[in-house]
Amino acid sequence: MFFMIVATLFPLTLTPELSRLRDAAPGVLWVGALLSSLLALEFLFREDAQDGTLEQFALSGQSLTWMLFAKTCTHWLLTGLPLALSAPVAAVGLGVPAGAMWSVVASLALGGFALSLVGAISAGLTLGARRGGVLLSLLTLPLAVPILVFGADATQRAITGDAIAPPMYLLGAIAVLGVTLAPLAAAAAVRIGLE
Amino acid sequence: MLNVSGLHLWRGDRHVLRDVSFSAAPGQCVQLTGKNGAGKTTLLRAIAGLLEPEEGQVSWRGSPARQTRDEFHAELAYLGHEPALKGDLSGHENLRFSVGIRRAVTADEIGAALTRTGAAGFSDRAVRMLSAGQRRRVALAGVLLSGAALWLLDEPTTNLDVEGQQLVSALIDEHLARNGIVVAAVHHSLALTSAGLVSLELGAA
């Protein structure tokens, strides 16, 4: 929702010229996606921590790592995927050619998944903090920069009609690294956060 | 079977637990008493492994609980201040999930446990619509279903009516008869019929 608002406000405020909007499109789409995923990340574990269910997860005798991984995937399915699927609507407004839509959706979906994984670590770390939202953004931003760079690059290449494979491979590599390491780190962070 | 030795724990600059030691054998219930802020909840959380003590150790079946964490947790049920229920789900759904992540459980088992704790009448209503005492009855059914040998109960009788408090005592008695172990933080002494009741006063020194 936030993403749609940001992405539709840009054409209204910048310029009605499609060619110039098209230049700004990758940046607008990706900054919008990053900010909206940061907003959503705050609620990844917060409610569970407040009502005590996260504690029960930690005490269930099952692997907390897998449970948090499942939770992060669900979170992506409910926030990241809808964002990627709604991106074409915003992209049309930014003058992205119709042929590039699939690539835009694919890069946002993959990048969003990597963002959710990275964000899970920060969400775990900021559990104990009051007003953790600001801290969460500060912690996540540096880690999110590579995703932002390669994601925007992929979108840029899609618009100009170049091969998007190279930045997509790099995004995929970040996501794979995230899948292997982030749930472990998030589980450790949540255990600290519960203290 | 549960052995706590020389536990020291600091919260910030407050020395909350000072050299707490006790042990509990199967069929024993340790009731933790003490003023507000004496460290009853802290001790329960430290036993559960949610808090790491600065010194001392908790061991279960002879091995340190920290090193065999998953095995220890599989045998442990912790009932905290908050009953750890999701407001949007009904009592029955909550239990299907929270017990389901520990072991396979059937709807009949859940129904029987809810009936036992007097929660069957409102188990299909969203938990957010329930009173604090009703939620606690649902949470108690969860403890009952967990199949755990060690129960850690933090003020189990809070918000419950007189009949509910008797129910808690009866449930603990039954658990002790099954050779279970209970550690409970209480304000009023539990009225148990079994002989295995031990009291430990915290913050007395």
Architecture overview:
The complex is a heterodimer of chains A (195) and B (205). Chain A has 195 residues and is mainly α. Chain A has one domain. Chain A has helices at 2-13, 18-41, 46-51, 53-58, 64-93, 101-125, 132-160, 165-193. The longest helix of chain A has 30 residues, at 64-93. The two termini of chain A are 34 Å apart. Chain B has 205 residues and is of the alpha/beta class. Chain B is built from six helices and nine strands. Chain B has helices at 40-48, 69-74, 91-100, 107-116, 132-146, 162-177, and strands spanning 2-11, 14-24, 29-33, 55-60, 63-64, 76-79, 150-154, 181-185, 197-201. In chain B, the strands form two sheets. Chain B has a five-stranded parallel β-sheet with strand order 6-7-8-3-9, with helices on both faces. In chain B, helix 4 packs across helix 5. The radius of gyration of chain B is 17 Å and the shape is globular. Chain B starts with a strand and ends with a strand. The model of chain B has no long low-confidence stretch (mean pLDDT 89). Chain A binds chain B through residues 50-53, 55-63, 67, 194-195, and chain B through 48-52, 70-76, 78, 80-87, 98, 101-102.
